[in-house]
Amino acid sequence: MNTNHFILKALSTKELTNIANTATTEWLFLQTEAGEVEFLPQAEKRFIEIAEATGAAMVYSDYYQITEDGKNPITTIEYQRGSLRDDFNFGAVILLNTGILKKITTHTPEDYEFAGLYDIRLKISETSSIFRIAEPLYLLTPVSATEAESRHFAYIDKKNRNVQIDMEKACTAHLKRIGALLTGNPKSVNLESESFDCEASIIIPVRNRQKTIADAIHSALGQQTNFKFNVLVVDNFSTDDTGNIIDRIAHTYSNVFKITPDNDNLGIGGCWQLAINHSLCGKFAVQLDSDDIYQSPHTLQRIVDEFYRQRCAMLIGSYTITDFELNPIPPYLIDHAEWTDDNGRNNALRINGLGAPRAFFTPIIREIGFPNVSYGEDYAVGLRISREWKIGRIYDSVYLCRRWENNSDTGISLETLNRYNFYKDKIRTIELLSRIKQNI
């Protein structure tokens, strides 16, 4: 089949423009990842037939990745309206409508060094469709395997700061074109609107963390503050010794409370929902995961002080990655410096996480509520809050995030990763449509 093939050598607008100007066929295949690509029999024909049948301007598919262990099927996920993250996995090959690509590049005033392909994809989605073929259509032999941990944190790598600025500009321009851009100032919060018996509650949802739960609770208890606080531990039906450990500590300390759900149908978001609606919950609900600890005895005081200084509905700190023995490990500090006061709530639709530890003004988080899931529940409420209220930040590390063999971020399968990414894209879609509606 007579179709142009190109290998992307740079992510710039100039590179995409040169490809568009060079192409002479109705459709073109663009290889976007390094490696050797081999189409399966009739695959190119299948790509084009489906593109023509659906009217899509961009088409991608599942594929096989060749490794030392053999041929591994790689399943991609459906593209949604809210699939705005710049690291969406389209695989190594995409099919583009040449005429639409030429039209876009001809009328593109921007000159991105790193966000050229991202910008093209967003512009295609505005006027046409992006379609996934749920079939493996080619083999990819990568140049080198990408380490899972570096991929997990690639979007905040300081070395990629210029890349992030470019991507943010492209995303912001897209939001403006489709009517989803938030302008003006978010609302500040009246922190004195309600009275609470307790100023702050440290919320610890947990299931089967007998190796770490005592460290987390004692880290909470070690906080030095000029106000009253408590620790609400939601034990989600642990089957190991976690519950007994909580009971022993709660028997010793009067400000530690064990909360047990009525049933075993709750995810982490459901456990948070139970805690924030509890009568013991204080004015501020503050995160502490059962694997982690606060970096100093002053973390809680710092968080509450920042709430009053920044007058925000949600406050997000920064954290340091450590091993189980609390030795710092790469990428070390996670500070989400890409957040800015003027555009952070727009850029939040592009990035894959908002940071930790997260803390909430309880009346507002009670109003919004957490989705009952165990991944992305924090991102969902963060996006919702950012649509309307101010989010405050702390950019120096106040929290230690452990990585160990039983940690939920370790060794995630492709199937699980796809489910997580699809859910976050769904959350973005909901938020995107809400913002468009709000702006009408």
What does this structure look like?
The chain has 440 residues and is an alpha/beta fold. It folds into 2 domains: 4-146, Spore Coat Polysaccharide Biosynthesis Protein SpsA, Chain A (Alpha-Beta Complex); 200-439, Spore Coat Polysaccharide Biosynthesis Protein SpsA, Chain A (Alpha-Beta Complex). Helices cover 35% and strands 23% of the residues. The protein has 14 helices and 16 strands. It has helices at 13-22, 43-54, 98-106, 116-127, 148-152, 161-178, 213-221, 242-252, 268-276, 299-310, 344-347, 362-368, 377-388, 414-439; strands at 4-7, 27-31, 35-39, 58-67, 70-74, 93-97, 130-142, 200-206, 229-235, 256-259, 284-287, 293-294, 314-322, 328-334, 358-361, 391-402. Strands 8, 9, 10, 11, 12, 13, 14, 15 and 16 form a 9-stranded mixed β-sheet that branches. Strands 1, 2, 3, 4, 5, 6 and 7 form a 7-stranded mixed β-sheet that branches. Helix 1 crosses helix 4 and helix 13 runs parallel beside helix 14 (414-439). Mean pLDDT is 95; it is low at 146-156.
Brief synopsis:
The chain is α/β, with parallel strands linked by helices and 440 residues long.
Shape: elongated
Unreliable residue stretches: 146-156
- Give helix and strand order, one letter per element, not per position: EHEEHEEEHHEHHEHEHEHEEHEEHEHHEH
- The CATH class name of the largest domain reads Alpha Beta
- The number of helical runs is 14
Task: State the share of residues found in helices, binned by percent.
Answer: 25-40%
CATH topology of the largest domain, anyone?
Spore Coat Polysaccharide Biosynthesis Protein SpsA, Chain A
What value does the average pLDDT take? 95
